[in-house]
Write a structure and sequence with these properties.
Radius of gyration of chain B: 33 Å
Number of helices of chain B: 24
Distance between the termini of chain B: 47 Å
Number of helices of chain A: 13
Strand order of the largest sheet of chain B: 6-7-8-3-9-10
Structural class of chain A: mainly alpha
Oligomer: heterodimer
Order of helices and strands of chain A: HHHHHHHHHHHHH
Structural class of chain B: alpha/beta
Largest sheet of chain A: none
Number of strands of chain B: 10
Strand content of chain B: 5-15%
Number of strands of chain A: 0
Radius of gyration of chain A: 24 Å
Chain lengths: 313, 624
């Protein structure tokens, strides 16, 4: 098991390295004259040259990359070209906001999708039909459109919820939960509808397996078969779906935060993108990839625990 | 070459029927109409739009719909309807571009990786795993930072990012047919790899790719509009995302502006999702119908008699309340099946019978063989005794009694789970055909032996463990401790079958139903397992129903034998009588085919002439 984890961790680090090289190259070779962009059209060539020197842009690409890498390994991701704020510290203030939402949504998705999916697979009938239709509707409407309508109807028109949310624990847990409700709902609806559909088919597939019939013939009760055997065998499929949904959500949350004016990663990433604030963009990408790698590692470990075949090999 | 021509031909037939089925499906029609309408509107946008996309009437901002601006205007006085039309153009084109790029990369890569495997596959799998761990929107933000606002660049990038979905689809499909016989045949007949891929393999992946494209176009529209919504798109272009964001900015004044772009997006993406579902349904129905046709041809005889004999529902309901006593004089039989019929409801409301008017009995200490080829209804008969028929199966006639009580009383249309759940595992048990798939791979063998004993016999875990180890020794496993702690994938097929036999006798049942218990095993192991079955049966004095297609097994083990064909019982008697002197031509054919050293896996056409011929051949041979 330790060997298995070490191997996965190693390949995760390789992925991180490759992505950092590709992103760095892409960003720093394609975006035109960065110094000119920062200083504006009025800047003289001398000023531009000076700025380039200051940012280290006059050096060859690989020198700059390894300088960045060396700093990054010590936790220093550089500073914003526009606000001079260290990237690492602005990420640190924003990550908690984003991650609270993402992980709350993920946990709720896992629970809701599992319950609804199993119910649809076992009961069939109208529950199943609702799940099928829900999956189509969920696939048809992007989460941010749902978010926009939640704000418009529930917050602005009806006033049930605050339209913009500020997440600071000082306002008290109740207000905080209140302000988080709509953004989390907007984040999770697509995940629940899609996930329930996937878990439904995984459970149906498992229920048709031969060993289920044999367990029944041995006098094991339906409930025990469902919760101990079928769900366990269907879980790896569910986990894979969840991890893919999480990857999508790390992007989707950017738009949701913009809609609800949340001080998370989203506004930072959007602003950095429009301004071509490359150190910040680079920091955002690296941080996202790290989250994905960690989550994938956790999923692999869970799968290993669930499936003895993986564990042994 | 003949093979190639044939598959090509049937390929076209399948495709045209899929199209017809798609058009018959309301969901398919609706999605096609929606998508075609949007496409036509988008193409005609320059002609039918009343205004240029960026024409602004500053004196008429945020106006309500009127005869000039049928959907009103936005905050800059631009016509909503015109912008919606131009937005459709850009949206559809960008979705097409994205899907096109993804196919152009994913399809050939998947074909090569699936067909040749090797290093190329290893490298592409690695690239895929990287691409799939990148969140789409974050990548597009990076691309935007690097290349500036361009719909086309961002959609090309997204196409690259999403190409793994085509790659994986194609690779899996190709791998599944790569070693099919017809592909081998084409290879042997000297076709080049390229033409094999073009002719045989491409036809396999075509339909899944269309379905995938519908899904991906939807995702592309959602993410593209998301970028525009964030204000990262090209400001000179009218798009649904920009319009949504424009509506959101003016949400306190004219929230209706939100509705139009949201509706356009939901309709387009929804149309694509529905289309994908409808195509998938059409393909799956096609397979079902093909399957049904094959079955129908096989059981032509029994379907003709399937003029439904549905039991009177009122009678069925009534009899569920109290269970009638079995006929006097039959209580002593361990199992008695009387005129049993099992059927499956079909889409057209009729019931297709797979077991029809079958009667037999089994006593304690007796082994009854049920013989027949696949599709003869022998397994269905066995499962109705166990109460383990699929959910949609119906008892369409007759009764089953176990030890003097009905498990299926006359007139009931389903097996009573209430009555059988008390018997299963405890008094009736089951030995399945395929040992590996009948053990849960996630639990140890020990767990799967101990739990039923704890549940059924109510003994402690420790006690059950001792018993399980003894059982494993009894079924001839040399190192029971090792097997007890092993997972199913760690033991051989023969060992797994011994474990399943141990499980079947663990709670000391009166009746064991063995469904082809040796078919999946090596010939050498088969004899051992049969010996084991006989030894246990004699020692425990249990009744056994042995379902098999193999007269050799019957001759070896059974006391009596029942021969089934097309759901009906053809002949029943002692093994000696049937083997020495088979009366029915079908039995003679079965025996004959066995003596020729073949297992009757294929359908036997009961032509009177050929049957008599092989039957007489059988009679010449000394049998028992």
């Amino acid at each position: 098991m330790i060997k298995f984890i070490a191997k996965r961790l190693g390949s995760g680090l390789v992925v991180l390295f490759v992505v950092s090289v590709l992103t760095f190259t892409l960003l720093y070779t394609s975006s035109g004259s960065i110094a000119q962009n920062i200083l504006g059209d009025q800047a003289t060539p001398e000023q531009v040259a000076l700025k380039e020197q200051e940012l280290g842009l006059d050096q060859p690409l690989f020198v700059r990359y390894f300088a960045w890498l060396g700093d990054a390994l010590t936790g220093n991701l550089g500073a914003s070209w526009f606000t001079s704020e260290p990237v690492a510290s602005s990420l640190a203030t924003r990550i908690p906001v984003t991650m609270t939402m993402v992980f709350t949504a993920m946990i709720l998705i896992a629970i809701c999708a599992a319950l609804i999916g199993v119910a649809a697979a076992v009961k069939r009938g109208w529950v199943d039909r609702v799940v099928q239709i829900g999956a189509i509707v969920g696939d048809s409407i992007p989460g941010y459109v749902i978010g926009v309508f939640l704000v418009t109807i529930l917050a602005i028109q009806l006033g049930f919820f605050p339209a913009t949310s500020t997440i600071s624990p000082e306002v008290g847990p109740e207000a905080w939960v209140y302000s988080m409700t709509l953004p989390v709902i907007a984040l999770l609806i697509n995940g629940v509808t899609g996930g329930a559909q996937q878990i439904r088919s995984a459970v149906i597939k498992q229920l048709e397996r031969d060993y289920v019939r044999t367990l029944r013939s041995r006098g094991i009760g339906e409930r025990e078969i469902l919760f101990k055997h079928v769900l366990r065998s269907a879980a790896p499929a569910g986990l894979t779906v969840l991890s893919l949904q999480l990857i999508g959500m790390l992007g989707g949350v950017v738009i949701i935060e913009q809609i609800f004016a949340l001080p998370g990663m989203g506004p930072l990433a959007v602003a950095a993108t429009t301004q071509t604030d490359l150190p910040v963009v680079m920091g955002v990408v690296m941080y996202t990839v790290v989250v994905v790698i960690v989550v994938n590692l956790l999923v692999d470990i869970l799968n290993g625990w669930l499936n003895p075949k993986v564990r042994v090999s | 070459m003949g093979v190639a021509a044939k598959t090509g031909q049937s390929g076209t037939v399948v495709r045209s029927t899929v199209m017809r089925r798609l058009l018959k499906n309301p969901m398919g029609i609706a999605s096609l109409v929606i998508l075609l309408t949007i496409a036509v509107l988008a193409i005609l946008a320059p002609v039918i739009a009343p205004f240029e996309e960026n024409f602004a009437n500053i004196s008429k901002t945020l106006a309500a719909p009127d005869s000039v601006n049928i959907m009103g205007t936005d905050s800059a006085g631009r016509d909503t309807w015109s912008r919606l039309l131009f937005g459709a153009q850009l949206t559809l084109l960008s979705a097409l571009l994205c899907a096109g790029v993804a196919i152009a990369i994913g399809l050939p890569a998947g074909l090569i990786a699936g067909y040749y495997g090797g290093k190329f596959e290893a490298v592409s799998n690695w690239v895929v795993s990287i691409l799939m761990s990148l969140p789409g929107l974050i990548v597009l933000l990076t691309i935007r930072a690097a290349f500036g606002p361009s719909v086309w660049i961002s959609m090309i990038a997204f196409g690259v990012l999403i190409s793994p979905s085509y790659f994986r689809l194609t690779r899996t499909a190709v791998q599944s047919v790569r070693n099919e016989l017809y592909v081998d045949a084409a290879r042997v007949s000297g076709l080049s790899d390229l033409s094999i891929i073009a002719r045989h393999i491409f036809s396999v992946v075509r339909a899944p790719i269309i379905i995938q494209t519908a899904a991906i176009a939807g995702v592309a529209i959602a993410i593209q509009s998301g970028l525009e919504f964030l204000g990262l798109g090209d400001p000179t272009k009218a798009t649904w995302g920009v319009m949504l964001s424009e509506g959101f900015k003016n949400v306190y004044l004219t929230p209706i502006l939100l509705l139009w772009p949201a509706l356009a997006m939901a309709l387009t993406i929804g149309g694509l999702v529905l289309l994908g579902n409808a195509i998938r349904d059409a393909l799956e129905d096609g397979e079902k119908i093909k399957h049904r046709k094959k079955r129908a041809a096989a059981t032509a005889e029994s379907t003709s008699s399937s003029a439904s004999t549905t039991p009177d529902p009122a009678k069925a309901r009534q009899s569920r309340k109290f269970v009638a006593a079995v006929d006097a004089g039959t209580e002593h039989h361990l199992v008695k099946v009387t005129n049993l019929g099992v059927g499956y409801p079909q889409a057209d409301g009729s019931i297709k019978k797979v077991v029809d008017d079958v009667s037999f009995h089994v006593d304690r200490g007796e082994i009854l063989g049920i013989v027949g080829e696949s599709g003869s209804g022998k397994s269905q008969t066995a499962f109705s005794i166990l109460g383990l028929l699929p959910d949609n199966a119906r008892i369409v006639g007759g009764s089953i009694q176990f030890d003097g009580n009905y498990t299926v009383a006359p007139g009931e249309d389903r097996v009573s789970q209430e009555r059988l759940s008390k018997l299963r595992g405890k008094r009736i048990s089951y030995i399945p055909q395929e040992p590996m798939s009948n053990l849960d791979p996630a639990f140890t063998i020990g767990y799967q032996l101990v739990t039923p004993m704890v549940r059924v016999l109510g003994i402690s875990k420790a006690e059950a463990r001792t018993r399980a180890l003894k059982l494993l020794t009894d079924v001839g496993i040399a190192n029971p401790e090792l097997t007890f702690n092993a997972y199913p994938h760690e033991v051989s097929g023969g060992m797994a079958q011994r474990v399943l036999i141990a499980g079947a006798i663990s709670c000391e049942p009166d009746l064991v139903i063995a469904d082809e218990p040796t078919t999946a095993l090596d010939v050498t192991v088969q004899a051992d397992v049969l010996d084991l079955l006989r030894e246990l049966q004699q020692r425990l004095n249990i009744g056994v129903i042995l379902v098999t297609h193999n007269f050799g097994v019957v001759a070896d083990l059974c006391d009596r034998v029942a021969v089934m064909q097309n759901g009906r019982l053809v002949e029943e008697g002692t093994v000696r009588d049937i083997l020495r002197n088979p009366k029915e031509p079908y039995t003679q054919t079965l025996l004959g085919s066995m003596l020729e050293g073949k297992t009757p896996m294929t359908m036997l056409v009961s032509k009177p002439g050929s049957a008599a011929q092989s039957g007489s051949a059988a009679q010449k041979e000394p049998v028992a």
